[in-house]
């Protein structure tokens, strides 16, 4: 506890500013996550149906025509319990980390605590002790998003190769399970590992439809969900699986080409976002190095601390707004 009342007031102001920034950030995250979850539920309700004692309670029934006969196809919908823990676990899986979530969170908490202690010991200011963990958390989030984006791109590219390989294997006379086994042997991770799990579950007695539905539900890729749904429909109604997989590979390839073109069109907005977000930090660091006396009121006065908190909040809102402007939604 600080003995000087002025230091106590400074500490309380720093904690209040940190609480304000954290609450605004958490509010934005919760709002974004709720919108994303609502949209995902709407998509699932349109593509799937909930089975209740053999009756369909929601969704629509897909009716297909094969050899002059009508075939009714229903893809069961499985409700999943959402929450922060589930969202974090999905992020860990998408990033490709084999470490358990509890270990990652414990390590991250230790790093944040060490950053806060180191910043306070070096600067002697409570505000720096509050700002250092936030900076570390932002850097960790950027690294996580970059890793997920890179892994998703690699996954989509390998999925196209896997579908083409499966189509050629089916045309050569191999069964569906044999084509999946060939994908597991020839295609690298993560696609190869995913199809290896399907083959393993099939060998353990799990139905092929259930195995495909499980991997689709545990992955965020829309292309994988489309593949699993297409295979289930073809297995129930009949048809040429090889032609279906080849057409699906072409559709995914065209979607990826369109996504790359969208990234090119929005690259100027992304570059402007990075420059506008980096400039305040660079100017702040340079001023602290070149003229520390000039920056002293920002640390020692309540008004200066509130100005820094408002600046951090403005940067956060600007980052969210630029992301919203560069995102194309149908």
Please tell me about this protein's structure.
- By secondary structure, the chain is mostly helical.
- It has three domains: about 1-45 and about 265-330, no CATH class; about 50-80, no CATH class; about 155-255, Up-down Bundle (Receptor-associated Protein).
- About 80% of the residues lie in helices and about 5% in strands.
- The protein contains twelve helices and four strands.
- The chain has a two-stranded antiparallel ribbon with strand order 1-2. Strands 3-4 form a two-stranded antiparallel ribbon.
- A hairpin with a 2-residue loop joins strand 3 and strand 4.
- The radius of gyration is 26 Å and the shape is elongated.
Strand order of the largest sheet: 1-2
Summed up, the domain count is 3
Total helix count? 12
Proportion of residues in helical segments: over 70%
Mean pLDDT equals 77
The global form is elongated
H-E order: HEEEEHHHHHHHHHHH
Strand content: under 5%
| β-strand number | 4
- Going by helix content, strand content and strand pairing, the class is mainly alpha
Uncertain segments are: 49-59, 75-81
Largest sheet: 2 strands, antiparallel
Instruction: Please tell me how large the radius of gyration is.
Output: 26 Å
First-residue to last-residue Cα separation: 54 Å
């Amino acid at each position: 506890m600080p003995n000087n009342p002025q230091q106590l007031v400074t500490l309380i102001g720093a904690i209040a500013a940190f609480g304000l920034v954290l609450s605004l950030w958490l509010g934005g995250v919760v709002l974004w996550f709720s919108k994303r979850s609502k949209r995902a539920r709407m998509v699932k309700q349109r593509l799937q149906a909930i089975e209740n004692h053999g009756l369909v309670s929601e969704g629509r029934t897909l009716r297909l025509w094969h050899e002059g006969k009508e075939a009714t196809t229903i893809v069961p919908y499985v409700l999943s319990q959402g929450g922060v823990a589930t969202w974090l676990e999905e992020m860990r899986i998408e990033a490709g980390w084999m470490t358990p979530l509890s270990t990652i969170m414990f390590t991250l908490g230790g790093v944040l605590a060490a950053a806060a202690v180191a910043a306070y010991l070096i600067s002697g200011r409570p505000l720096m002790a509050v700002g250092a963990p936030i900076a570390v958390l932002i850097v960790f989030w950027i690294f996580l998003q970059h890793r997920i984006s890179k892994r998703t791109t690699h996954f989509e590219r390998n999925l196209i190769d896997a579908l083409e390989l499966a189509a050629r294997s089916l045309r050569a006379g191999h069964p569906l399970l044999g084509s999946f086994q060939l994908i597991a042997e020839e295609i690298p991770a993560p696609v190869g590992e995913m199809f290896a799990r399907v083959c393993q579950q099939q060998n353990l007695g799990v139905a092929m439809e259930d195995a495909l539905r499980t991997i689709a539900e545990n992955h965020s890729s829309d292309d994988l969900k489309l593949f699993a749904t297409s295979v289930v429909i073809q297995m129930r109604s009949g048809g040429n699986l090889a032609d279906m997989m080849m057409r699906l590979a072409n559709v995914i390839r065209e979607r990826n080409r369109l996504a790359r073109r969208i990234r090119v069109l929005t690259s100027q907005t992304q570059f402007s976002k990075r420059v506008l977000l980096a400039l305040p930090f660079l100017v702040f660091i340079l001023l602290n190095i070149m003229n520390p006396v000039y920056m002293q009121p920002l640390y020692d006065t309540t008004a200066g601390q509130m100005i820094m908190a408002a600046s951090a909040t403005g940067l956060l809102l600007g980052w969210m707004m630029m992301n919203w402007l560069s995102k194309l939604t149908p």
